[in-house]
Amino acid sequence: MRAALHSPINDFLAYAMLSGWSKRGYKACPTCAHNTNSYWFGGRMCYPGHRKWLPIDHPYRSQGNLFDGENEYGVAPVPASGIDILKELEKVKYIYGQSKKAQPKKISKKRKRLQGGTSHDEPDDDDGGEEEANVNWKKKSLLFELEYWKHNPLRHNLDVMHIEKNVCDNVIGTLLGRDKSRDDKQARQALKDKNIKSHLWPQSDPNRVNDHLPPAEYTMSTEDKERFLRVIEKLKVPYGYGSNLQRCVNIKQRKLINLKSHDNHVLMQDIVHVALRASNATKVIDLLEELSDFFKNICSTTIHSDDLDTIQSKLVLTLCKLEKAFLPIFFTIMVHLLIHLVDEVKLGGPVADGCVPLKEDECGGSQSNEIVENGWIINEFPEWLRNQAYNIDDSTTEGKLRKALAGGLSNYSKKLKSVIVNGYKFDTMERERFRKTQNSGVFVEADGQEYHGRLQDIFELNYYASFKVIMFRCEWVDIHGGLKTYPNGSVRVSELMHTGQNLHDDPFVFSSQAKQCFYIEDEIQQGWSHVVKTKPRDFFDIGDDEP
User: Residue 392: helix, strand or coil by DSSP?
Assistant: First the structure.
């Protein structure tokens, strides 16, 4: 038996060091390589041009006035094979372990910047004005010493978590106009120099010290930003779902601080677009929700191969819509790398792959028996069944279970405040009142309808120590007057709930039927909340056993 290296996973800096391809400059994308679409814009390098991945007859291709001013006739670049890369590497001279003084001198070349800063010959601001001519390779990867490496179609994996964090920082920074914002006077002036998106050009005003920057689709007012941040400040998430985001909110400076990688993960996938909708803060909510759906799909523990082409086509359209709404400077290399993630999944499997998924069995709910309609039968059947139970063979597990069921419930049961079921941690509303987490959100799927509510009580029913059953008593949302569903599938509910005091409200549900969600309060319409569904950690859906 021999071990073989399939493909390492690295953040983009380590990716560049290991592969030998420079992560800077006009050809920073290692997949597009020499066909990378990039230009200098507003003092920074940007990487738009995702219309190449659209169908050849898509109307966006001929609507250059909405994008970079030019129609798109190109096609998506084909990644180079390992054999082609080895031919390119023949031009690269590199001695491992050599000092900088002994390194061959790079070809230094002064380049002219065209008016508007859009020349393809402009050096990257991180490159110090030097770049090797024609070849972006800095060295030959040692992995090519493996005899099979040149035949490996996926030699390196992009780190999705690293990309997601950078995209999230881009989005939040641009929306709030802080730190990593991709909208400033220099970028707006570059629009004017390039003669695109005239409605966003800076405008001179004699009554202002600085030029006026017209609002874009993503622009948020000071009040909008504060509402958005208040939504996150009030937010409580389930235990184990994420950290306490309240500590990251700085309303005075109107920004989010000290975000960790997992904070960016939950913000990008579940919270940002919902918080924006709850505060009605910007016009690009649906667009950011499409981006969120892509990250959810690509990070899913189970991805069907038939769905990958659909995921890719939706992403391409989303990136093109982003190009219409945002400035070209928004498209850093990290945003561009999104276009290649689906292809990597096709070659290397799901992003979350790494352990054998286990399917959690679900216990179905009780079903009504149409035979039991007569009151006499209802009264007599339990006693008859109890008598029949004495004749059951209890030497088997199934026999013991039947006998215990026939014996009925014990007169004693427990009332719990917290329980872990199906990978979720559930708390009652009373228990979470003074906690930083929200674990009382419950939703159940039945007859094609979703029912949302809050967990009021937890009961542990005892069948004379033979086995136990956990029941939830919930306050349910009125699906007729307290539920609104958006076209994209997101749900908003009101606090007008069935209290469960009446049995016809059907307050009880088996714990095995319950799934967890949490609620984000709406800042505009008081009494309404937005639903965010969660998934338990380390639980995987591997589909049905039948082919």
Answer: coil
SS3 367: coil
Q: Residue 429: what residue type?
A: M
pLDDT at position 263? 92
Which tokens belong to 438?
Answer: 């929200």
Q: Checking DSSP bridges between strand 441-446 and strand 424-427, what pairing results, if any? A: unpaired
270-320 residue pLDDT tens: 999 999 988 887 789 999 999 999 999 998 888 888 899 999 999 999 999
What tens digit of pLDDT does each residue of 180-205 get?
A: 788 888 999 999 999 999 999 999 87
Which residues lie across from 161 on neighbouring strands?
A: none
Residue 118 and residue 214 in one domain: no
Q: Please state the rounded mean pLDDT for residues 261-271.
A: 92
Cα Dmax for the chain: 100
Q: Which of 160, 136, 139, 154 is nearest to 93 (CA)?
A: 139
Q: Are strands 497-498 and 515-521 parallel, antiparallel or unpaired?
A: unpaired
In a domain, 425, yes or no: yes
481 domain residue, yes or no:
yes
Number of domains in the chain: 3
Same domain, 428 and 285: no
Helix axes 308-325, 341-348, angle to 10 degrees: 160
Give residue 178's domain range.
Answer: 160-348
